[in-house]
Amino acid sequence: MADLPTISALAPRIARGELRSEALTEEALARIADLNPQLNAFITVTAEAALSAAREADKDIAGGRSRGPLHGIPVSLKDLIDMKGVATTAASRLRADHVARRDAPVTTRLREAGAVIVGKTNLHEFAFGTTTEDSGWGPARNPADPSRSAGGSSAGSAIAVRTGMSVAAIGTDTGGSIRIPAAACGVVGLKPEWDEIPSEGVVPLSRQLDHVGPLARSVEDAALLFDVLRGHRPLALEEKPLWGTRIAVLGGYFFDRIDEGVEATVLGAIERCRSAGAAISTATLAHAASIAPVYLHLVLADASAYHAASLAERPAAYTPNVRLRLEMGRYILAEDYIRALRGRAVLATEIDRALSEVEALLLPSLAIPAPPLGAAAVPVKGGEEPVRNAMLRCTQPFNLSGHPAISVPCGRTPANLPVGLQIVGRRGRTRELLQLARSVEAALASET
Amino acid sequence: MTLEQWLEDARMDAFRRKLPELAELLEGLAVATAALRDADWNDDASGRHERDEEPS
C-alpha cells in the first residue's frame, strides 16, 4: 500500500490546486475498470455522478471554496448504505430493483465533507457472513491472492482501499465485518463504539450489534473519516510515542485456535510495541468460551426477525447458505435469547474489567490468514476449525460489548498474506484509541 | 422445553419444509444452545444455581 497515497497526503494537494479531483476520480474509475472484473469489489459504479461531483469540486477550489476535509476525495460505500437514486442491494437479488429515496445520514455527512462517491461495494449477502462468497453478485476476491476470500462482510470496501479503486471506504461491522476484511486485505478498519455513528439508512443485520465505520490506508485517515461520519470537525492525531503506555494482551481463548503464521506475526508486532516502550501485561476473559454461543443466538434471531416476511414470500431470492442461516434463527426460543442477553452483559463487564488498569487490549484481528474460497474448515493450532468460527473468534466479543476496536496491518504470514493487529479501547474513548493506534502504527513502521 | 425435545421438533419441521440441510445446521445450533444453557450466569427459580457471588 506504500504506493497508494492517503487522504492526509491528497487533500492538501487538492486544496492547493496542485491535484485535480477529476484526475484522481478518473484514476479510481480506471482501476475499477481494470481490476473489478477479477476482484468483484463493486456492485454499482456511479461513474458519471462521481465525475460530475469531482468537476464541481475542482470548480470550488478554483473559486477559493473548500467543502471540507474530504474535498474531492474518491470514497466508496458498502452496498447496504443508502445513496439517493441508487439501488441498495445488500448483495441480494431480493433487493436488485431497490432504489434509495434518500441518502443515509453517513452518506450526507460524506458529501457535506466534500467526498466524491464512486460506487457501492460488494459484501456477503445482507452482511450475514465473513467470506463474501455468498453474494448475489458473485464472490469478492483477495487482491493478495484471488483464489482466497477478501474476508467479509465488507470485502469490497477493503479491496477498494487496498487497490486504489477508492481512497477510503465506509463499511459496517456486526461481528467483525470491518476488521476481518481489513486484516485479510492489509488495510486499517475501525469499528467505533456502538451508536457513535448513525446507522439510519443502513440495511440492518442486528441493530443491537451493527456498527458503521471506515476502512482506510492509515490510522490518521480512519480518524479523519470517524470525525466526519459522526458529524464532528476533524482533529489531527498527535505524533506521540508509545513509551509508558499501558496495554494488555488479551490471551487464552484468543490465541488458542489460531494459525501459527498469524500468531507469530501478531506476537512479533506486540514485541515491537514493547520495544517502543509500551508496558505490556496480560489479561483474559473468564467467559470467553461463551462468546460464540451468545453471539449466535442474538444475531440469528435478530436477523431472522428482519427477514421473516421476505423469507416466507421469496426464499429463492436469497443465496442458499444465507437463506439457511436466516431460517435457523427462526427456531431460537425466547428463553435462550434471554440467556444470551444476560451473557452479553457478563462479557461486557469482563471486558470493562480487563480495560480497567490499561489503556487498550491487543489481540489478533483475524485468527487465520484469508481462507481459500470454498473452504469449509481451515487448519489452526490443535486441529481444524470451521472457517466462520475461526474468522469471527477475535472480533465478535466487541460487537457484543460495544467497545471501540481497530485493526491495523502488522505484517504478513510466511505465505505473504496480510495479518491484522486488533486494538480495543475503553468505552467513550474512541479518539484515544485512534491516538494509540496511530502510535502503534508508527512503532510497527519504524521497525519494518 | 428440553433441548432434546426442541431439536426433535425443529428437525421434524425442517424436514416437513423440505429443508434437510437446515436440519444439519440445527444440530450445530443445539450444541451452542447447550453451552448457553450450561453457562454459570444462568439463574434458576429453584435456587440450585445460586452462588455467593455474581459471575465474574
Low-confidence runs of chain A: none
**N-to-C CA distance of chain B:** 28 Å
Major beta sheet summary of chain B: none
Strand % of chain A is 15-25%
Helix and strand string of chain A, N-terminal first? HHEHEHEHEHEEHEHHEHHHEEEHHEEH
Shape of chain A: globular
Number of strands of chain B: 0
Largest interface: A-B, 25 and 21 residues
**Secondary structure: helix percent of chain A:** 40-55%
Number of alpha- plus pi-helical segments of chain A? 15
* Biggest sheet strand line-up of chain A: 1-3-2-4-6-5-12-13-9-7-8
Oligomer: heterodimer
From the helix content, strand content and strand pairing of chain B, which structural class follows? mainly alpha
Helical percentage of chain B? 55-70%
Whole-angstrom Rg of chain B: 15 Å
* Average residue-wise pLDDT of chain A: 97
Strand content bin of chain B: under 5%
The count of helical stretches of chain B stands at: 2
Helix-strand category of chain A: alpha/beta
Low-confidence stretches of chain B: none
Radius of gyration of chain A: 20 Å
